[in-house]
């Protein structure tokens, strides 16, 4: 088994002559404010050079399902996905021209060929903290890959928000259907969402430190359960680009030193091979080989700091009246859809819309250079008009008008990607994550 790691969740596994590539993504992501790091010297052509027999796509977010990278390979390539009730991922892949799609049931072993077997681990919870949710947003997966020759198991956690305890189920599944031992594991050991860098009313430096420590301790707990022989660190995996790149300093990514300090364990070795490095077993030990390519963070960061976002050229002349109309219809649909769900929390959401939202060097809104247009509000309360203090929160969202309009009319995939993709700035009170608010916004559209 030869494992190569490129960036984020993009890696490949080679057994004999069979290659399976996972979540291939190189460059700027569509519908998010992130760019892959390290950038491979071959760009999106790196997938073509891998010549995969199979490509696994964990979920529909564009740092995992990247059309420009997938466009480089033969449309006959077999694409592996989970069999979702929601068919959006499958429809997107079909639209890209791939017709050979293998849909796998969760928690089931599949033999792909004489070289490789796999199993798909579903999303069990919406967040790694196990916060209660009433809106079931099943989007993510992880994958187990086994060599049918050596019986070695590689567990690719991707960014599936599994809690520490959920990994006991994963370990049990692997032990029962694959092997008692996990040879290699890779987990997301840093924050990849919008918190804390996109939040305006908090101490982002302190929150960054808290999130990093918490994420690493959680990763340690997962590794203690999984007990792999080797661990591949996915860091560094991506960086912010565009006008919000000034927020990069608040992104909760651990340093290598922090990883080594918290994750160090005599039972496994941590391997840093991002950018195209490899890991294979020699004489009973996992041996890594780092890539010869050199990646200079400052150079890449500077190059992409002024890059435009995917929506920048859309709806430049959209009128307030058009936005009003789209929001009114979207709001009606939003309430109608949420009233069908057993939601126990309630909230206010306010959208502050700007013609071109700008931030200063401190990561705060530059109101002088940002043309504020209008505020839109949602009040979701099932308590017959009584404002209850319990289970109540307020979220303020600051974003560009063309992004807001594009989301309302469903020009873009869903709200989840820009929300977590660092394209919206927030204020929330209390400063507690309620998954129901965030997931509910996916229902805010005219359809």
Query: Beta-sheet strand percentage?
Result: 25-35%
Please give the count of helices: 11
Number of strands: 21
Largest sheet: 8 strands, mixed
Calculate the mean pLDDT score and round it: 92
Helix content: 10-25%
Low-confidence stretches: none
Quote the distance from N terminus to C terminus: 47 Å
Structural class: alpha/beta
Short description:
The chain has 447 residues and is an alpha/beta fold.
Q: What this model shows, in words?
A:
The chain is of the alpha/beta class and 447 residues long. Helices cover 24% and strands 25% of the residues. It contains eleven helices and 21 strands. It has an eight-stranded mixed β-sheet with strand order 7-6-5-3-2-1-16-17, covered by helices on one side. A seven-stranded mixed β-sheet has the order 8-9-10-11-12-13-15, covered by helices on one side. The radius of gyration is 22 Å and the shape is globular.
Mind sketching the topology for me?
Layout: E1 2-7, E2 10-15, E3 18-22, E4 34-36, H1 46-50, E5 54-56, H2 67-70, E6 78-82, H3 88-95, E7 101-104, E8 109-111, E9 116-122, E10 141-147, E11 153-156, H4 166-177, E12 182-186, H5 204-226, E13 228-232, E14 238-240, H6 256-263, E15 269-271, E16 277-282, E17 285-289, H7 297-304, H8 320-338, E18 346-354, E19 372-380, E20 392-400, H9 401-408, H10 416-420, E21 425-429, H11 435-440
Parallel strand pairs: 3-5, 5-6, 6-7, 11-12, 12-13, 13-15, 18-20
Antiparallel strand pairs: 1-2, 1-16, 2-3, 4-14, 8-9, 9-10, 10-11, 16-17, 18-19, 20-21
């Amino acid at each position: 088994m030869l494992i190569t790691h490129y960036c984020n969740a993009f890696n490949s596994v080679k057994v004999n002559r069979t290659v399976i590539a996972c979540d291939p993504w190189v460059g700027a992501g569509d519908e998010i404010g992130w760019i892959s790091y390290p950038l491979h010297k071959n760009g999106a052509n790196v997938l073509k050079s891998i010549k995969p027999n199979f490509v696994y796509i964990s979920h529909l977010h564009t740092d995992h399902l990247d059309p420009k990278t997938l466009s480089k390979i033969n449309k006959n390539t077999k694409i592996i996905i989970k069999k979702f009730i929601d068919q959006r991922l499958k429809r997107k892949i079909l639209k890209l021209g791939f017709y050979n799609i293998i849909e796998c049931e969760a928690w089931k072993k599949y033999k792909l060929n004489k070289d490789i077997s796999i199993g798909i681990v579903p999303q069990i919870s919406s967040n790694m903290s196990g916060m209660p949710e009433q809106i079931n947003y099943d989007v993510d997966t992880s994958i187990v890959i086994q060599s049918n020759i050596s019986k070695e198991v590689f567990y690719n956690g991707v960014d599936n928000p599994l809690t520490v305890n959920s990994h006991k189920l994963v370990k049990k599944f692997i032990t029962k259907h694959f092997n008692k031992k996990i040879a290699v594991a890779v987990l997301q050991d840093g924050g990849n969402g919008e918190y804390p860098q996109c939040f305006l009313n908090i101490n982002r430096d302190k929150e960054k430190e808290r999130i990093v420590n918490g994420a690493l301790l959680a990763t340690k707990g997962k590794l203690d359960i999984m007990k792999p022989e080797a661990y591949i660190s996915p860091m560094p995996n991506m960086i912010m680009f565009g006008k919000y790149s000034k927020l990069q300093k608040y992104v909760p990514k651990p340093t290598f030193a922090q990883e080594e300090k918290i994750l160090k364990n005599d039972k496994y070795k941590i391997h840093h091979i991002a950018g195209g490095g490899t890991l294979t077993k020699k004489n009973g030990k996992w041996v890594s080989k780092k890539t010869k390519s050199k990646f200079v963070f400052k150079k890449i960061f500077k190059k992409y700091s002024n890059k435009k976002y995917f929506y920048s050229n859309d709806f430049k002349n959209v009128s307030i009246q058009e936005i009003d109309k789209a929001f009114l219809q979207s709001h009606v649909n939003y309430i109608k859809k949420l009233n069908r769900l057993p939601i126990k929390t309630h909230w206010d959401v306010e959208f502050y819309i700007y013609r071109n939202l700008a931030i200063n060097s401190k990561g705060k809104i530059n109101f002088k250079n940002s043309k504020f247009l209008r505020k839109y509000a949602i009040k979701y309360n099932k308590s017959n008009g009584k404002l209850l203090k319990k289970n109540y929160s307020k979220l303020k969202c600051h974003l560009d008008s063309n992004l807001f309009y594009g989301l309302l009319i469903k020009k873009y995939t869903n709200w989840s990607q820009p929300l977590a993709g660092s394209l919206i700035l927030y204020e929330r009170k209390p400063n507690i994550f309620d998954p129901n608010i965030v997931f509910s916004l996916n229902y805010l559209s005219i359809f």
